Amino acid sequence: REIVDRGLIRSITQMLSDLGHAVYVEDFEAPFLASSAEFYKKEAQEFIVSSDCSQYLVKAERRLHEEVERVKNYLHATTEAKITRVVETELVLNQMKALAEMENSGLVSMLMHDKYDDLQRMYQLFRHVDGGSQLIRTYMADHVKDIGKQLVTDPEKTKDPVEFVQKLLDERDKYDRVVTQSFADDKTFRNTLNQSFEFFINLNQRSPEYISLFIDDRLRKGLKGMTDTDIDLVLDKVMSLFRYLQEKDLFEKYYKQHLAKRLLSGRPVSDDAERSLLIKLKTECGYQFTSKLESMFTDIKTSRDMMQEYTSKAGEAGCSDAAAATSGIDLQVQVLTTGSWPTQSACKCNLPRELEICCERFRTFYLETHSGRRLTWQTNMGTADLRADFGGGNRHELNVSTYQMCILLLFNDTDRLTYQEISEATEIPAADLKRSLQSLALMKGKNVLRKEPLSKEILDSDVFIFNDKFQSKLYKVKVGTVSAQKEGETEKQETRHKVEEDRKPQIEAAIVRIMKSRKMLDHNSIITEVMRQLAPRFLPNPAVIKKRIESLIEREFIERDADDRKMYRYLA
Predict the structure, then answer these.
(1) 228-237 CB contacts, 8 Å cutoff, 24+ apart
(2) Cross-strand bridge partners of residue 457
(3) CA 420, 379, 495: angle at the middle one, nearest 5?
(4) pLDDT digit string, tens, across residues 305-354
(5) Residue 433 CA to chain centroid, in angstroms?
């Protein structure tokens, strides 16, 4: 290698500077920068052919460091920025698109294979040249959208809601780390990442339902053994997905249904976790979003206190109700406020006589202190614990739904009943009756009934027999499950229809608010403003907004301007 006499070169450049900075610039710096540009232009072509993206970036970074050192050793300090710009232009700016698109080693490959150090080097080099950061953001956004789109539109990957959401969380964790570790937690990159996730999560209409089901799964069983800090971390991650949802009102609908089942089962894994999530939702969406959810918690606490008072009074009265005393029924009632809980149509179901007596006794007690109210029993939401004796002295405690209890108690008087006989005796709605019988007769290890003929479907001609040979290692056997399942296509359509109906008054309220404050406004401005105001809950369809405007005109809240049909005027 040729030995460079740094002292000599330093003396020469110093001499040129001493003659005047213009001499240094014109006679040395300008030719030096031009020849350097030519040198690096040629070297860039050599590097791009002989190296993969990672190797190229290392070489470019080393050349930049070498030039900075060279300036420090024997050039004027003002040359540093200029020569740095030359190297960046020739080695980075002019090659960045080719580098990003390199097959098997470019930007997408680095993202796919978690090359955090290489991505950091690319970010540090590219961000100093025009359009460099934007280029990385564009490629990253396209890649994340592509990966996400494949995930949310693949029928196989969306079969299991819990696994589906876990995959979303894993993807978010991965790219969150990329932004934090490789891209210096750059806000513009974080915004790009958020926009990409929002794009593909909302491609799947079931995302709000699946995120709620994931929360339901975690709050039922997935948090056992975790510390409060770990639980909070899981909830924060789920909230990050919730923020991407455009249909937050649809999520609320599902969340309310799933929360109701958790609260009414009486066995939530963590009351603190439930309330912590409620606070996070309230912080994110405001009081209006969570007011009914909070009312559900209040109802459960009030019911608990009320049952203590009821039990105490029954004890003081010496349990005058002989039927209730001899039956040994421990009645637990939860009084739910209509409007706060998911709407339930009152389902007809013939309760056993001894239970009806208990219910009437409670009704009398309740209405003594709450006159003017009306109690409607929601038998489709209840549970029961039954003690059952089987052959060979086997005794078990069965945890069943209220419907299943009504079915099983029929077998105290007979060992064999037809489907029609059960249906007539209980009057349980057909769909619920069939589901209950499937759980009692077809679930392995929990089949306290036998079905003839043995098939998965329940037919009107089927016969059910008490399974005297039932055995289980557990004394307490939970038949069926109250955990939420993803909705079928019909139920999904019903839920969406309910949500669409709930949106109409919200859209109308927004239109009236806007018109009241502005007095007169054109059609497009109303559409834009309504969409802006309602975006935190859902994205209204402009066609639906137009229909609500027409409805408000008919009801004389607003009117069209006589001269300009596209202008609307508020009517006080």
Answers:
(1) 228/272, 231/270, 231/272, 231/273, 231/276, 232/276, 235/273, 235/276, 235/277, 235/280, 236/280, 237/169, 237/172, 237/173
(2) none
(3) 95
(4) 998 888 888 766 555 444 444 457 888 888 988 888 886 666 778 888 88
(5) 32
pLDDT band at 222 (very low <50, low <70, confident <90, very high): low
SS3 content of the chain, % helix, strand, coil (to 5): 65, 5, 30
Task: Please tell me the number of Cα atoms within 13 Å of 290 on its side-chain side.
Answer: 17
Please provide residue 247's backbone torsions phi and psi, each rounded to the nearest 5 degrees. Answer: -110, 70
Q: How far apart are CA 325 and CA 337, in angstroms?
A: 29
CB contact at 8 A, 251 and 212: yes
| Residue 292 CB contacts under 8 Å (≥ 6 apart), including other chains | 256, 339, 340, 341
- Alpha-carbon distance of 403 to 425, in angstroms, equals 12
In the block, which residue shows the tokens 């996070």? Answer: 280
Q: With left for phi above 0 and alpha for psi between -120 and 50, is residue 59 left, alpha or beta?
A: alpha
Tell me the pLDDT tens digit for each residue of 162-172: 999 999 999 99
pLDDT for the residue numbered 116? 96
Alpha-helical regions (H) of 179-266: 187-201, 207-217, 228-244, 248-265
Query: Which pLDDT score is estimated for 99?
Result: 95
Residue 84: predicted pLDDT? 95
Q: How confident is the model at residue 183 (pLDDT cuts 50, 70, 90)?
A: very high
Residues 6+ apart with CB under 8 A from 437: 407, 419, 422, 449, 451, 458, 462, 464
**Whole-number pLDDT of residue 381:** 81
> Residue 243 in 3-state DSSP?
helix
Structure tokens at 119: 């991505």
With b for 16 or more beta-carbon neighbours within 10 A and e for fewer, the 188-208 pattern comes to: ebeebbeebbeebbbebebbb
User: How many C-beta atoms surround the C-beta of residue 28 within 10 A?
Assistant: 17
